[in-house]
């Protein structure tokens, strides 16, 4: 019997480590920097099935702990289902507004925070916490890794959608149990992301929340430490690309 660890017969399939061309590298960064959360600017036109499948397959190629692939993608086009989810948002949003300090509540209420019914398609991204069996490689001591893996899938979807010219808005002002009931999602599957997807005329150049004065982007130099929490990292002084 061959040693299971050494696997002498194992012949890996490899690709070259060839660099991206300048244009390819720029395209990757362009998708990252120009991706936006889209709430109210959706066009009603349908999203073609082949395009939708491309962005879902990009999501499915995200990394996952122990290669668990814990995600499902529930595509919601039914107007009545979307209306029900929009109702769940509306109720949660009233509660959310009241949680902010009094001087921010009016500013909060003025924000548009979802495009559930205006987007032609919604995608609910879920995490099946049982999919890898009782013990999952890489999640033995950090059990939330399946949820974090699913978020990686969401980000792949978001970036691929931007490259396809599609806007995506993540709506999380929702009671999970209520959305699960509307969509028939069983326990112990978790709702990770409720996404509104559709074509848009334009994207905000910088985050909408920043443009509306809610919160600004933190300078990268405040976020990168070197060797010790709170230290200053010399590399951040050189500056970074701007949106
Ligand atoms: C986990 C999670 C959850 C939410 C969001 C994002 C993420 C990552 N965002 C979008 C968020 O406001 C947005 O990403 C930031 O404001 C930065 O803007 P850009 O994404 O760069 O446009 C978001 N936006 C919104 O209008 N309603 C929402 O419920 C949520 N929920």
TrEMBL record:
<dbReference type="GO" id="GO:0000166">
    <property type="term" value="F:nucleotide binding"/>
</dbReference>
<dbReference type="InterPro" id="IPR029479">
    <property type="entry name" value="Nitroreductase"/>
</dbReference>
<keyword id="KW-0169">Cobalamin biosynthesis</keyword>
<dbReference type="Pfam" id="PF00881">
    <property type="entry name" value="Nitroreductase"/>
</dbReference>
<keyword id="KW-0547">Nucleotide-binding</keyword>
<dbReference type="GO" id="GO:0102919">
    <property type="term" value="F:5,6-dimethylbenzimidazole synthase activity"/>
</dbReference>
<keyword id="KW-0521">NADP</keyword>
<protein>
    <recommendedName>
        <fullName>5,6-dimethylbenzimidazole synthase</fullName>
        <ecNumber>1.13.11.79</ecNumber>
    </recommendedName>
</protein>
<keyword id="KW-0560">Oxidoreductase</keyword>
<keyword id="KW-0288">FMN</keyword>
<dbReference type="InterPro" id="IPR050627">
    <property type="entry name" value="Nitroreductase/BluB"/>
</dbReference>
<dbReference type="GO" id="GO:0009236">
    <property type="term" value="P:cobalamin biosynthetic process"/>
</dbReference>
<dbReference type="InterPro" id="IPR000415">
    <property type="entry name" value="Nitroreductase-like"/>
</dbReference>
<keyword id="KW-0520">NAD</keyword>
<feature type="domain" description="Nitroreductase">
    <location>
        <begin position="32"/>
        <end position="199"/>
    </location>
</feature>
<dbReference type="InterPro" id="IPR012825">
    <property type="entry name" value="BluB"/>
</dbReference>
<keyword id="KW-0285">Flavoprotein</keyword>
<dbReference type="GO" id="GO:0016705">
    <property type="term" value="F:oxidoreductase activity, acting on paired donors, with incorporation or reduction of molecular oxygen"/>
</dbReference>
<comment type="subunit">
    <text>Homooctamer.</text>
</comment>
<comment type="similarity">
    <text>Belongs to the BluB family.</text>
</comment>
């Amino acid at each position: 019997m061959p040693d299971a660890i050494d696997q002498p017969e194992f012949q890996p399939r490899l690709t070259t480590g060839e660099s991206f061309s300048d244009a390819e590298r720029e395209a990757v960064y362009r998708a990252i920097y120009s991706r936006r959360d889209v709430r109210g600017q959706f066009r009603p036109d349908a999203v073609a099935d082949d395009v939708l499948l491309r962005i879902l397959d990009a999501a499915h190629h995200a990394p996952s702990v122990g290669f668990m692939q814990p995600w499902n993608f529930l595509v919601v086009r039914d107007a009545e289902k979307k209306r029900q989810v929009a109702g769940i948002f509306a109720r949660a949003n009233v509660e959310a507004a009241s949680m902010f300090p009094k001087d921010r509540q009016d500013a909060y209420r003025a924000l548009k925070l979802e495009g559930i019914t205006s987007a032609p398609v919604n995608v609910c991204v879920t995490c099946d916490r049982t999919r890898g069996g009782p013990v999952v490689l890489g999640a033995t001591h950090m059990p939330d890794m399946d949820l974090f893996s699913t978020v990686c899938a969401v980000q792949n979807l978001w970036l691929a959608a931007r490259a396809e010219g599609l806007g995506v808005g993540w709506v999380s002002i929702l009671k999970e149990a209520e959305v699960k009931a509307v969509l028939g999602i069983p326990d112990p599957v978790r709702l990770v992301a409720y996404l509104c997807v559709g074509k848009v005329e334009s994207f905000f150049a910088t985050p909408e929340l920043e443009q509306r004065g809610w919160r600004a982007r933190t300078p990268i130099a405040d976020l990168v430490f070197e060797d010790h929490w709170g230290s200053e990292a010399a590399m951040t002084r050189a500056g970074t690309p701007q949106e």
